Amino acid sequence: MKLTFSVVALAVSLAEGARAQCPDFTTYSQSPQGNPSSGPLKLPYMRPSPGPSSSSTPSTEKVIVDMKARLKDPDIARLFENTFPNTLDTTVKYFNSFATYVPLLSVDPSLATLMKAVINNEARYVSQYPYCGSFQPPPESGLAPSLNSHAVGVTVNPPVNNQTVFECKYEIDSLCGFLKLSRSYYGATKDASFMNDNWYAAVNQIFRVINEQSQGSFDANFNFISYYNWTGGNGALSPAVDNGGNGEPKAYTGMVGTHHRPSDDLSVFAFLTPANAMLSVELSHLNDILTQSGQAKSGQGKNISTQATTWSKRVSDAVWANTLVDNIFAYETNGLGSRYVMDDANTHPAYVATRKVLLSRGNPYFAQGKNFSGAGGPHVDAWHPWPMSQISAIYGTDDDEEILNRLYLIANNTAGLGLIHESQSIYSSTDYTRSWFAWANSYFAEMVLDLAQRKPGLIFRNDTAYTPGQ
Ligand SMILES: *[C@@H]1O[C@H](CO)[C@@H](O)[C@H](O)[C@H]1NC(C)=O
Ligand SMILES: *[C@@H]1O[C@H](CO)[C@@H](O)[C@H](O)[C@H]1NC(C)=O
Ligand SMILES: *[C@@H]1O[C@H](CO)[C@@H](O)[C@H](O)[C@H]1NC(C)=O
Ligand SMILES: *[C@@H]1O[C@H](CO)[C@@H](O)[C@H](O)[C@H]1NC(C)=O
Ligand SMILES: *[C@@H]1O[C@H](CO)[C@@H](O)[C@H](O)[C@H]1NC(C)=O
Ligand SMILES: *[C@@H]1O[C@H](CO)[C@@H](O)[C@H](O)[C@H]1NC(C)=O
């Protein structure tokens, strides 16, 4: 799922001297560790200390101190303290999780250096394997590649080298994540030095994928067109994929097809609406950073800027023309009239009407029980919604009571472990998947920081807003 690789490995290779052997966070996160918080939930302190693997810096520690001084509920403060540094504290890193630290880049050169290294490293992978989303540790780390049992017996084309690629599922979302990190870094630092040949090679490969995956399955003479196929089956968690690993046929619309959803599930239809919306937005930002940095004036920057502008509009026009019926966005379409309305909530749903459906019986993957509720997906099953869907819902509302309800629904359902799970049963607080899910943890911390600006009075002792790094 997502562009993943070991950032600690990267940090180790950047840092002076070797670091100690780190505890395995997956095991660590399965039982309560430090002292409980003083609130009714008694949530444990869950940071591996003193943190041999931590890439945490004085500026990230200051955010924790500042927030703890302000948050009025010690349980929410403890959740923030555990979740905010989680990506920097733990070994396996999720690319998306870095968004949480963007506000600190302008004041913390060491974090900025780390993020630039992440971008350079990702550019290297994307330029080589734009269809893949999960990679082995970078060679500089000296860490050995690990065998992915879920990739055994799965055929993927174009073929990949398993010493570099951990798994080659294709998700538009991963490519958007790379573009988003690049523009977030530029926005915070105004440093364009990452826009080197390596980075341009990656961006060119992204446009290659956009061109290839926007095409219909058949050409005018009914030749079947396939640039990428992934068979699933054997060791894969996904069943065998029909049509030779291509999935359901699609027609040209102007949208870009994906093979998998951000949740790792196979798409039913290729044109995933939220991913295309995000792609259109990120391509428009790509043009912005090229323009602001002066790169759009000539050379490859000019070429990329033109393509970005063209595709941003094309994708956006196609989303409006093809996915909307009765004011509800379909989740997936195929350009041939088939639609699938649901949301597996790993994405920000765009509009109010759609959101209402997503958090209701109108979404086949919405479920509500005595313990928990939210939107899920077939990745786990219909009665284990994602806590991330509740986080998204908090972003989507201005209603104080609703925000607090959702916040405490999440806080009440960590099984006493003080970290955010991947999925949570609606029937039982002790039934969940992944005690610790890096992406969900950073998303939670990001949401609390958003409330710190948007609704300080709701969560703080007083009504003064707080922005990290200021
Ligand atoms: C890579 O593939 C080869 C051949 O299938 C297999 O023997 C080997 O264990 C794999 N290595 C890794 C790290 O996945
Ligand atoms: C799979 O993709 C490759 C290109 O990467 C293509 O040559 C091949 O024909 C495709 N196979 C199928 C069954 O679609
Ligand atoms: C822009 O790049 C694409 C491929 O990346 C290439 O096909 C095209 O010729 C380039 N256009 C210009 C004007 O350089
Ligand atoms: C969370 O749990 C507390 C009891 O600890 C309860 O009072 C509250 O209603 C619960 N909130 C939600 C939204 O489930
Ligand atoms: C949730 O589930 C647990 C374990 O199944 C149960 O003991 C508990 O009472 C439930 N809590 C709520 C708020 O329903
Ligand atoms: C609110 O609390 C913060 C942190 O304790 C403090 O710096 C700020 O001055 C307070 N604002 C008001 C208006 O009291």
Automatic annotation (TrEMBL):
Biological process (GO), any one: carbohydrate metabolic process
Disordered, as annotated region: 25-60
UniProt cross-references to Pfam families, sorted A to Z: Glyco_hydro_125
Signal peptide coordinates: 1-20
Gene3D superfamilies: 1.50.10.10
GO MF annotations in UniProt: hydrolase activity, acting on glycosyl bonds
SMART domains: DUF1237
Keyword hit for Hydrolase: yes
PANTHER family (UniProt xref): DUF1237 DOMAIN-CONTAINING PROTEIN, MEIOTICALLY UP-REGULATED GENE 157 PROTEIN
Name this polypeptide is given: Six-hairpin glycosidase-like protein
